Amino acid sequence: MNEMRLVVVGASGRMGRALVKSISEQDGLVLSGALERDGSDAIGKDAGDLAGVGTLGVAVTSDLEAALEGADGIIDFTAPVATLNFSKIAAERSLVHIIGTTGMSAEEEQELKRVSEGSRTVKSGNMSLGVNLLSLLVRKAAAALDDDFDIEVLEMHHKHKVDAPSGTALLLGQAAAEGRQIDLAQNSVRSRDGITGARKRGEIGFATLRGGSVVGEHTVMFASEGERIELSHIATDRQLFARGAVKAALWANKQQPGFYSMADVLGLND
User: Fold this and answer.
1) Residue 35's beta-bridge partner residues?
2) 3-state SS, one letter per residue, for 1-68
3) Parallel, antiparallel, or unpaired for β 258-260 and 96-99?
4) pLDDT tens-digit readout, 119-170
5) pTM of the shown model
6) In angstroms, rounded to a whole number, what is the distance separating the alpha carbons of residues 174 and 181?
7) What is the rounded distance in angstroms from the CA atom of residue 180 to the CA atom of residue 178?
8) Which of 21, 97, 157, 218 does the annotation list as catalytic?
9) What's the pLDDT tens digit per position in 39-65?
10) Cα angle 203, 207, 212; round to 5
11) Are residues 172 and 220 in contact, defined by beta-carbon separation less than 8 angstroms?
12) Minimal CA–CA distance to 41: which of 60, 22, 26, 28?
C-alpha cells in the first residue's frame, strides 16, 4: 500500500511542528512537503529537525509548486485568507485538505465551501476526539434542558492566540444552538461591559480568557435556579490536535469529494 503524502503549511510554527511530528509517527503517512512564508528563518532547514524528530529529508520551502509536487493532501492550520487560497489549490488538484484554521467569518466559511468543491475537505474548530464528543453531549444537553437553563461558554487559551472566541468555543456554541433549534448568530452574546441589563432568556453567552501558555480549556455551563451543569474539556498538549488532523487525513483519503467535519471522521453523526 502506498503511503499518503502530506504537505504541512506553516511548518515551523508550534502547530506545524506538532503536525510534522504526528505524521512521522503515523503508519501510512509520509511528509512530502513543508511550506512557510517568504522570509521565514526556517527556509532551507529540515522540517524533521525543527519538529525534534530527526532529519526527514524534507526542507522547509516557500516554493508552493515544489512543496506540492506529488502530494496527496494538505494540512492547514493557518489564517482565513491563506486557507481560502489553499482550498482552491486543493480543489484544482483533487487533494485532501485538512483545515484547523479558526477565526473565519460567516462569509469566508461560505466561500470556503464553494471553492472546495472537488477536494476532500475536513474542517473543524477542534480536531480532538474529546472536544467533538463534548460537542455531541452539549447538543444533547441543550435539547434536553429548556431555556430555564442559561447557557454560557467559557474558554481560555495562551496569550499568543489572535482570535476570539476560539474556534472550539464557537463549535460548542453552535452545538448548543442546534440543540435548542435556534440561530447562534442571532442569539449569542460575545461581550458584556457596563450597565448591560438583565440577561435575556435564551441567550448563549461567551467569555474569553487569555494568558500564559494554556493550550486550551473549554466549559459549557447550563445554569438554572439552584443548580448548574458543567461540561468541560482541558487540553494539556497540542499534539492531540495534530493526531486528530492526521487521523482526518487518512480518513478523507478514502472518501468521495465533499466537505466534512471531525464528527464525520469520528463517526459521531451516525
Assistant:
1) 9, 61
2) CCCEEEEEECCCCHHHHHHHHHHHHCCCEEEEEEECCCCCCCCCCEHHHHHCCCCCCCEEECCHHHHH
3) unpaired
4) 999 999 889 989 999 999 999 999 999 999 999 999 999 999 988 999 899 9
5) 0.83
6) 10
7) 5
8) 157
9) 999 999 999 999 999 999 999 999 999
10) 165
11) yes
12) 60
Among residues 214, 262, 261, 220, which one has the least CA distance to residue 238? 214
Q: Is 113 part of the annotated catalytic residue set? A: no
Whether 157 is a known active-site residue: answer yes
Cα–Cα distance for residue pair 8/17, rounded to 1 Å = 9
Instruction: Give the span between the Cα atoms of 6 and 97, in whole angstroms.
Output: 10
Please answer whether residues 78 and 108 qualify as being in contact, where contact means their C-beta atoms are separated by less than 8 angstroms.
Answer: no
Which of these is catalytic: 45, 88, 158, 161? 161
The answer to whether residues 79 and 102 touch, using CB atoms and an 8 Å cutoff, is no
Residues contacting 168, CB < 8 A, separation 6+? 102, 125, 126, 131, 155, 216, 218, 233
For residue 165, whether the previous peptide bond is cis, meaning omega lies within 30 degrees of 0, is yes
